Amino acid sequence: MSGSFFQMLFGGKLDLRKLKVKLREIERERRKYFMDLRKLSATQTDMIEKIKRARREGNQFEVDYLWEEMKSMKHDFAFNKRAAKISNLEGIALKKYIRGLERLEKRKDKDGVNKLLQRIRNSGLDAKLALQSIDEQAYVDELNATLDDLGLEVDGEFEDSDPEKARFLSEIDTINEAETGGDFEAALKTEAELKQKLESEDNAI
């Protein structure tokens, strides 16, 4: 995660193949950071259970040891959360830039390509990513402005269509609604069916 991510990628001659390779690298990084966060969360849950048990048993030594371990995990959480957020934002921007450049090249609009490259180089995205507290909305606004100026609409064509995700989230909403309504039997049944679909060979939802 360089402090000059976009300057590094777009500072020289345009190479779409190189940009696509970098996008795949970023997506792998993002998955790794989110996986690390899930592992940390699972470890934290396990440690809380151990602390609860140690408190019940009056084992103060164990409580103190586990508490110190949990405190040290805060730094790991903070690092991975920030790294995941930056990778996610880098990936969003790079994907949109690649699609925009491909559209301009398809039109043989060399002037448009040059204008977009110049706007990327002059954008404030690198500075926003370097801030201690990242303002995601300001980042997205800057990204959208870079593309909108050239008539490369951000919404619609640039949005990924993922019907599988839509079906999955619909199932999640159904489970939440059942739980909220107190129908826990229906919620458990729907959740079991969803897990079965997710674990099936074709992962069809």
Describe the fold and architecture.
The protein is mainly α. The two termini are 35 Å apart. 13% of the residues are buried. α2 packs antiparallel against α3, α3 packs antiparallel against α4 and α7 packs antiparallel against α8. The chain contains 8 helices and no strands. The protein folds into 2 domains: 144 residues, no CATH class; 37 residues, no CATH class. The longest helix is centred in the middle third of the chain and has 47 residues. The C terminus is likely disordered.
Please tag this protein with its features.
205 residues, mainly alpha, 2 domains, disordered C terminus
Strand element count: 0
Distance between the termini: 35 Å
Largest sheet: none
What percentage of the residues does DSSP assign to strands (E)? under 5%
Order of helices and strands: HHHHHHHH
Mean pLDDT: 82
Count of alpha and pi helical runs:
8
Q: From the alpha-carbon coordinates, what is the Rg to the nearest angstrom?
A: 23 Å
Poorly predicted spans: 201-205
The rough form would be described as extended
**SS content category:** mainly alpha
Q: Fraction of residues in helices? A: over 70%
Count of all domains:
2
List the helices and strands and how they pair.
Elements: H1 5-10, H2 16-57, H3 60-106, H4 110-122, H5 125-130, H6 136-148, H7 163-180, H8 184-199
